[in-house]
Amino acid sequence: YTQKNNMPVNHVHVTVYQGRMSAEAADRVAAVASSRPSTPLQTSWFEFLLDGSLLEKHLKKANPDPTPVQLIVQFLEQASKPSVNEQNQVQPPVDNRRNRTLKLLALEVAAHMKWDLDVLEKGLTIPVLNMLLNELLCVSKVPPGVKHVDLDLSTLPPTTAMAVVIYNRWAIRTIVLSSFPEKQTKPGPHQMNVINILQQEKEMTENILAVLKEQANDSISVLEGALQLKKDFYVHTLRTLDLLAADTAANGETESSTAGLCISADELHCQVHYDVGGIFFHQGCTDQTAYQKARDHFRQTKDLLKKLDSTVHVHLDEKRLAGYWNACKALTEDCDSDSQTTAYDQINSLIRAHNYQVRIAAVICLDNVTHSLPNHFRQSVLREFLYKVQQGESGLDEVCHKLCICNAIRDSLEGEVLSVRFQQLLLKPNKWMVDFILEVCTLSLEKEHLSETLRRKIGNFIKTLCENLEELPLLFVVSSHKLFIELLKEEERKVLMEQMRKKSATINLSAKPLPSFYDIPASATVNIGQLEQQLILLLEPRKIRQTLIELHGLAERSYWKVNNKWEVPPDYINVILSIKDNLTKDLVYILMAKGLHCISIKDFAHARQLFTACLKLVTEFSPKLRQVMLNEMLLLEVRAHESMTAEGSKERPPPDLVSRVRGYLEMRIHDVPLRQVVGEECVTFMLNWRENDYLTLQVPPSLVMNNPYIKLGQLLASTCKELPGPKESRRTAKELWEVVVQICSVSIQHKRNSDGRLSLIKHRESSMGILQRYFRSMSHFMLLHSIDDIVNEVTAEHLSIWPSSIPNLQAVDVEAVAVTVTELVSYALTLNSNNQSWLITQADIYFVTNQYSAALNIYLQAGAVCSDFFTKVVPSDVYSDQVLKRMIKCCSMMNCHTQVAVLCQFLREVDYMTAFKALQEQNSHDAMDSFYDYIWDVTILEYLTHIHHKRGETEKRQIAMKAIGQTELNTSNPEEVLQLAAQKRKKRFLQAMAKLYF
């Protein structure tokens, strides 16, 4: 497709493929296989040839099928199909009217998309887009046989010049995009034709990229020339392309050249500056001066963006632009006035100036208060200094230690697992290190309005510090510090001095009593607009009522509509709006809406005030609304207690609250609107606080029969009570299983709604809500999720108590189960991020969804939390053979083949076949020979030596020989010595893996 020197070429024979069959064939197969007769068939490509007006009508649809990019592929595929002559020889595509029309149709679709390269690049492959843009050059009358760099854009017709600009923009963008790594797709078995097609496409792409890279400087020159033009530009539209097709003798000076879509010079320059800046940034790896050019272009882009009122024709990623700008400033010593205003800029400036002995740690330390730097940047700063240490730069150990400590405290504040590097730092502590830790903790607490949650996290960090310190003098330094006294209770301090663990208790906050507010006089002294604004902001019930009285005195209308974000549950709207007195109606509605909003943001103190005022108001005239408010206040107290529990409190709810929950569940008041969520959360509350005796023994049988939430709660409670017993006593587990399967099932015997969903399970969503909140029942869903495919099994606790088969598996709503599984595990880990069983389950979910890097990360976390960061042996029930095999597959899918070989040793029986196959791979993305020290199996080391000798890799062979020559690996050693050598290498390998993936 592409010829050197940016010159359009005659099209060679290429068939355009999308996926594994043509777009037309795929659409037809999908249409035939569809079970819904109401779905219309796709419009075929040849219909656009028959009806000239069909394309524009099709593209104007809200969701055209096929989509615009699919149409481009279909048109170009048909236009580039080869022909066969009488001798049955394959010939290039015929240059006839049909094929020319198809190519023009493809250009018209791109014109409809306004030549948005962002969309075209996402939907089309490089060969297809290259073919499309070459067609654009041809129809735009770009002079043949002339290099683009030799053209004078100022003398060319507007649309001709614009075609050259678009092509060269695409050329440099493609070079940049091709430098980003992409995951290679591996076709399945028995698809050799697909492999051949993919290989052909890959070769074409590589050839095109080679030419584009060779002529990159010419493309840059062309675009820099476009930046010198101050006139408006024009790009082809459907109309101008039709004019070109009609006027076959046009030479580029016809009406079609200036009748296209007008793009202002500023808009084009903004886009070109961004694209050229990207290619210069890409070239900066080999030419440092290119970063300065990139910075200048990005500055121009930013300036033009500010200047433009609207950016209809500018398609760029402003977040990426900001990233480019920050990177350029860091690399080029930019001296702009704004370059030293952020912590990010300060750090980059200090690194460039080599002024980092003290100040850089101070900036990172201060960021623990402001949280302006992302965690990944802070970690990269630490890695930068560790690299400098490895390169032999002296005097940086203290800086590295300080950065590591600051990052650990930041991780603690955000609820993350502490890094392996920090844990290793605590193995050899000293006084200055402990003093610095306490200093950073103190600074981190100086932020205004610091929440109790963050204070508790720092308190837990102090506890962790004490538990890891073994030297009494250092322990006394911590125990005598004010943080130790302020953040921990006396009982905890005593226990910590004895090196024992105990959970911290939370502080109970009680709401202040609400004074009466009925005696406030009304006064209309301000205008309505100011009063409405005040009404929106107020949270005090007395002031809300006073403001409403003043508003009603100025104008009688419905003020509950002032803010469209005030919402009350639909169940209550009719009751509230039926209140005859407008002032009372407004007051009830607004008090309830504001109270519900306060609950949603966990401002329970104000919510209590608002609800108490509303309850007092409605008690005077509406028993129905009084009961509604009592129900909502019950839900408020339940959620307030849940919030305290989520923050670490283990205090049981007061008996009064439990009694009120029971009362609600047993309530039988007719004609009172009830919110479904109240029933859900009351059942969940009883389950979470293990009121199993009530749910299983004391709840009235009639209530169980009539209330599906109670029935589900009773089954959950009964199953939990029977868990410690023998299998034969778990009769309720089977009944619970059947209910859960029914909730997750879809029945074809019930009428479908208009959206295709079933009206079958009236209470399904609420039942899901109870199950999601009561996370201990998650093993139902793990088994449902994996029962049809043992290869993709997701493990969890208590799987053995459930049946092993489902009679009607096809009826299970797999999507609902998958979503619920993900939600359950995520919620469970927010409650206990160090639960090794839940971590393994989370890793399994990532594994079966092909997120191998994330899965390996979580598998390593699970091992770390149960072995004190691999200082002890990981229990075999955590790193079972199944888990180890999945870790092996994760490494294999990421092309980390040496890690695969090392992990093969961890299995109960070493998997030599997998290890040998992995070591035969030459394209390994891990550190290869640096992992040889972690191999203790002599057979694998001998195989390594043989492979390197066979390949002539002398240095690697020497490393393998050195590893095999260690005396502790001698097979004649006692078994205890060999086991000790293996355990030592396991520990070091897992710690090294944690550093890589944490």
From TrEMBL:
Q: What are the residue boundaries of the INTS8 TPR repeats domain, all occurrences included? A: 526-997
Q: Does the keyword Nucleus apply?
A: yes
Q: Which Pfam families match?
A: TPR_INTS8 (PF25756)
One Gene Ontology cellular component annotation held by this UniProt entry: chromosome
Where is this protein localized, as stated in its record?
Chromosome; Nucleus
Q: Which family does it belong to?
A: Belongs to the Integrator subunit 8 family.
Kindly give the PANTHER family that the UniProt entry links to this protein: INTEGRATOR COMPLEX SUBUNIT 8 (PTHR13350)
Q: What is this protein called?
A: Integrator complex subunit 8
Q: Lineage, please?
A: Eukaryota, Metazoa, Chordata, Craniata, Vertebrata
What gene name is given for the protein in this entry? ints8
